[in-house]
Amino acid sequence: MQHNIKLYILVTALLFGLSPLAIDMYLPALPTMASSLSVSINDMEMSVAVFLLAFALAQPVFGLLADRFNKLNLLLSGLVIFTLSSLAVPLVESSEGLYLARIFQAIGGASSVVCFAMIQQKFDIQKGSQIITYVMATVVIAPLVAPMIGGQILKHGSWEEIFYVLAGVGVFAFVLSLFTHSEKLESVNSSEVTKSDKVKNDKREQVTSSSSLADFIAIFKQPLPIAFIFLGGFGFAALFSFVAGSAFVYIDFFKVSPENYSYLLGLNALAMISGSLLSAKVLAKIAPNKKAIIAGLLLGPLSFLFFVLAQMQAPLTAIVIAVFIFNILLGMISANAISAAMSFYPTQGGAISGVFGLCQFALGAAFSGAISLSHAQSPAVLLSFMGLACASAAMCSTYLYTRSCSENSELSTESNAIEPCRSL
């Protein structure tokens, strides 16, 4: 049982890591690809934005479909699309062909959002939150390590081999998913569930099958789950701001060597893992909504620190420490925010996770795009955008905290929502 859960977590983490790898693994190869396709570097950078946009829009679609159709079939179909489109990228001969292949690659990768609905259906909120914590650690760590992986492949091979590796990972994920995410495994793992819980699950599945576009639209009308979604989304926006601008700032401004830059990225990945483990292990008994709100509130003073560092000639050490603290908090926020949002919709896990993914990557694309357009070659621009994203996330947490104080009857623990403010 325990072994199956660990394997389930590892495979789910791999599924969620596919798209971040596809987004960032080929970044070191952009100049080489531009020369190979005889296009400008701006055309190549546009392929990143095209992927992000398609990925953001495809997630709500898969989320809605997950509440109506077989989740495993949707997941496997997406993996097939991801693998075939990855193989198609090395065959393109123009920027338009690259954009088309990247769009389908993004659509295939977006099928991973179905796993949120699988987790919600399979586990209770506390256990599901722990699993999502480990999974989301992959999502936020992957953008930091993907360029290093791509750089090593490019060092020993060609840019085409980056996409062959992505296709191979897609095939590997497909095969593993057949064993770990099948209906047969779910029935085995649910053998310890009581009869009353099975009745509840049966009712949940009956309601879930009737989910529609109206359920998706209704999510946007509910301020509390949307606040949790934007909390996680702005946290991701700060991360993408760092990913988009850190190379210019660290390497060009502070003259950090590419090798040492990769070590600094590894340090941030370590911080993310630490935050995730802190949430899943040390603070396991604390409700996900509490952890998300408290970590989000801590982003408030951190945003002030970012703004202060932006206005002064901050040394590299101070920036590294501030970013390290941010990554610890983000490791706590990401999984707990989606778990808290999903607790409001126990029968529409696909729809709510689709909205979460849309918000996450849409805000990430907006902030990273703004960083690119502003030519962030000094710490001030990068730190200002990270401060803005953190301040926005802190505002969402502040709203959630004040609402938990004023609506105790609506936000009771029995509904798995936010507990009264006195328990925070």
TrEMBL record:
- Taxonomically, the superkingdom here is Bacteria
- Which keywords has UniProt assigned to this entry? Cell inner membrane, Cell membrane, Membrane, Transmembrane, Transmembrane helix, Transport
Q: Where is the Major facilitator superfamily (MFS) profile domain?
A: 5-405
What's the main place this protein lives?
Answer: membrane
Q: How does it sit in the membrane?
A: Multi-pass membrane protein
Q: Where in the cell is it found?
A: Cell inner membrane; Cell membrane
Membrane-crossing residues? Answer: 46-65, 72-92, 98-119, 131-150, 162-180, 226-251, 263-280, 292-310, 316-338, 350-374, 380-401
Record Pfam families: MFS_1 (PF07690)
Family assignment from sequence similarity: Belongs to the major facilitator superfamily. Bcr/CmlA family.
Name it. Bcr/CflA family efflux transporter
Q: What species was this sequence derived from? A: Shewanella eurypsychrophilus
